[in-house]
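Please, structure for the following, as tokens.
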Amino acid sequence: MIPRIQYLKEKKFIGKNLTMSFINNRTGELWRSVMPSRKEITNSVSADLVSLQIYPPSFFENFDPSKEFQKWALIEVRNFNEIPPGLEKFTLPSGMYAVFQHKGSSNDKRTFEYILNQWLPQSEYLLDDRPHFEVLGEKYKNNDTDSEEEIWIPVKLKTQLKPDAVIENFDRHASFLPGATPSMNVFRFPGLTYVDSGIASDTFNIIHVRDSKKISSTELMRAISRFKEKGRLPFCLWISEENLTARITAMLSDFGLTRKPVEAEPGMILNLDAYQPSHHDLHTHIRDVKSVQDLEAYSNLLASLATPPDANTIEYYNRVASTIMKENHNLNYAIYSENEIATGGVEIFPTDDETAGIYGLATRATERGKGIGTALMIYALNKLKKRGFKQVVLQASEDGAGIYRQLGFQDVTRYFEFALAETQARE
């Protein structure tokens, strides 16, 4: 029996709960108290019923059939605007699940025994401390051997994801286009990459710490001096949480760099094996960038995020346009447009055949709140899943991180941004 691994977004339910144990099973009593009110629920998502259990921590480690847990009888709803008298609301948090198809009576525990005693120990997953539940759909027949239901087991990976994929993709993304553009320069040293775009913008002049253990004081000072000597080009230094050691922090301070007064950006990874492609109604307005005109629309969109629009962004994309338009790479840009005006966009940048990063996910300020960003994100994930990628990485603003977590992204690091103290004072 092979389950599907699926990341489930947060869901809303209405129903009732009782405390019970496997010995003192009150499931029938619970459902009998809920079913008379079912017709009063006017905003249900489907006709499916959900039987959900909240077990105490370590419930299955030393299994005791007399130990109590909370059980809910639930119906999924679109919102909590109307809750019939006597029923309660319940919010299921997002998370990863192993989903098994059970055939047979609900009283037949062989599927559960297989999951806990055979599949789970041999899998790459552990039980997670979240609700377990069963979906009782149209093929469910109570206590019938011909019954079918889905069993959803909350899981997490045994081996926690490491930030290496985020760091590697960030480094390659920062340096790929400048490295292929004659007017720009990329320098690589052990543990350190820096990019001199020649443009007066700290968005495109970057020092990136890949591995703090390999960096020398001389190399770091050389990178900083490069920008100081070139007419004091503005730049930013980016460094992940695990690389920001006491030694590196002291070096940055000695060279006059301080952390910018912005929130650290979560570095996140999505396991595409657990991602289920979906359709969004706004996908009909999204197209891949295939022409210089589309690329100009994308760069103008990014420039419009600043007030006034950032001319440096437009200059950067003008300089790298010839590289982007070549077809001997796996770069992918997409734009969302209505009435021939680009109001959203996203970039996909692969590290290799298994890992890709998502960058430049943007929506024009006047169009936010319409679902354009979500549609673009789903479009990108669907494309990557179809192309056979295994994981997706990104850096998120703290505002956007919650949306990405609902899609299945997991935090693996945080990125910090440093700049010269004197530059920040002028800003």
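The mean pLDDT is 92. Residues 164-263+418-426 form one domain.
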